[in-house]
């Protein structure tokens, strides 16, 4: 788990109730590539322990990234330079990881 460097807000609405929570700099997160998609966990320790686990299958994750990209097109002022640089670096690293040749399957498995 890594420390949250910024802030996350989570809201889940059901017909009879809603759950809301925030995860700030005292919280931790983990984001991993799993065989079927992306696993994301946000956790807040202390006296008010809470956690959120989300699994997004690959096509949905790709659709989300595409929608974010579409919503940024033509809106250069929406993301400030510091955040823009961090996002660009992360996207470049992901693109490089996806472009790398796939490892051969382990024949012993």
Structure description:
- The structure is a single chain.
- With 109 residues, the chain is α+β, with helices and mostly antiparallel strands.
- The protein has one domain.
- Helix content is 31%, strand content 34%.
- It is built from two helices and six strands, in the order ββββββαα.
- A four-stranded antiparallel β-sheet has the order 1-4-5-6. Strands 2-3 form a two-stranded antiparallel sheet.
- It is globular and about 45 Å long.
- It starts with a strand and ends in a 10-residue tail after the last helix.
- The relative contact order is 0.10.
- As residue ranges, the low-confidence spans are none
User: Could you give the distance between the termini?
Assistant: 28 Å
The portion of residues forming beta strands comes to: 25-35%
Strand count, sense and closure of the main sheet? 4 strands, antiparallel
Oligomerization state of this entry?
A: single chain
> What is the structural class?
alpha+beta
* Radius of gyration, taken over Cα atoms and rounded to an integer in Å: 17 Å
The SSE order reads EEEEEEHH
Walk across the major sheet and give the strand order: 1-4-5-6
Q: Quickly count the domains.
A: 1
Helicity, as a percent range: 25-40%
Number of helices: 2
Q: Which descriptor suits the 3D outline? A: globular
Q: Give the beta-strand count.
A: 6
Average pLDDT: 90
């Amino acid at each position: 788990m890594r420390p949250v460097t910024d802030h996350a807000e989570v809201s889940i609405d059901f017909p009879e109730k809603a759950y809301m929570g925030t995860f700030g700099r005292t919280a931790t997160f983990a984001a991993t590539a799993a065989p079927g998609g992306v696993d994301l966990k946000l956790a807040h320790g202390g006296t008010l322990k809470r956690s959120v686990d989300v699994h997004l299958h690959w096509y949905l994750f790709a659709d989300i990234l595409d929608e974010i990209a579409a919503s940024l097109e033509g809106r250069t002022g929406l993301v400030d330079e510091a955040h823009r640089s961090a996002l660009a670096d992360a996207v470049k690293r992901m693109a490089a990881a996806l472009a790398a040749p796939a490892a051969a399957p382990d024949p012993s498995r």
